Sequence to fold (402 residues):
Amino acid sequence: MYDLTQCVHHPVVSHDGFQSLAIATHRASTIVFDSAIAYADRHQQGPQGYSYGLYGTPTSRTLEAQLTLLHGGAGTVLLPSGQAAIVGIMLSVLRPGDRVLIPSSVYPPVLAHCQNYLSEFGIEHAVYDPLCGSGIETMLDHRTKLVWVESPGSTSLEVQDLPAIAAAAHRAGALVGCDNTWASPLLCKPLALGADFVVEALTKYAGGHSDVLLGSVTVGEEEHDTRLRAWLRTMGIGVSPDDCALVLRGIETMGVRLAHIGRKATDIARTLTQSTAVEEVLHPALPHHPGHSFFKRDFKGASGLFSVELKPQVIPLLDEALDGLKCFAIGASWGGTRSLLAPITLTTQEQGSGPRSRTLLRISIGLEDPDDIWDDLNSIFWRLEQVFKLTASPKTSANERN
Fold:
């Protein structure tokens, strides 16, 4: 071969004796075949075959298989984000004239999708109380094809009675999807509790390092896997093998990270209940929390995300209280190695009294030293408590707490 040809035709080298613990990152658009017949038959290989890089490489297949095993499912598909995974389920399942039920605690972009896009296709949505349990049956009719569950709920973290909701939905002929990002498959397995689809925003604990965007849908039955893969093909949706490799690496340490930050976050949440600046601490492991009994029944433990509802009197001091943080960063998302804070205004519709606005401080605990975490939290809550003319927050020092 001439030089220019040798530049683009790579030599074949032996792989004999090479075994790495790391999963290889297979990048590909074009997949080549041994013969014209093999190329002509490429679509007959089944869902695990390789025909084009958009539809999967050994790297993405490895991640799909690992998530399927962790959830005890029949198959997994990957999408560019957790929100894309939710939208993918809805658009592949719902048709004009259908109806989807979503909890009032749902991730806000899901509600926006229902209001702004599904409605244009003649697909209705209705919002239900996340704590209604089997009472959801009063909202189910022949048009209801999907019931969406997010447990714990976005920001407010209500824990839903998934088995009761799933049983009622299935009796009415509806499918059930569940966003399980808060818990990951290590702390909760929604398929075993009755869900048909389970979504993970792999961006969070599975990726674990705040540097990747990826989502997954794991299904309980093979027919749902086939339907989702067909939808992804027609939509031209695929994922990067580099992103898959990052998540595969993150999953290897997810167990130890979750165990550590779950313990620390629960300890911190309990202590913050003492602060006079706090109206309520929203953490599923606390006995007073909405749905706590379902948490004890269905979850193996807690992750590192919770929210603190602040008293109205301290809200004017919040911006200043968040200045000068040394450990926490202020930003969206969560589940990485860094501790994060996000001030959020949550508006809910209260029956008989109109909308109610609450200011929450969403806290994601990372892997920093506990004393450094407490130094920042002490500073924040000490400043907030000045409206009540207190001298310390919340009543004990970081060293006494840990």
Remarks:
- Residues 371 and 398 are 6 Å apart (CA to CA).
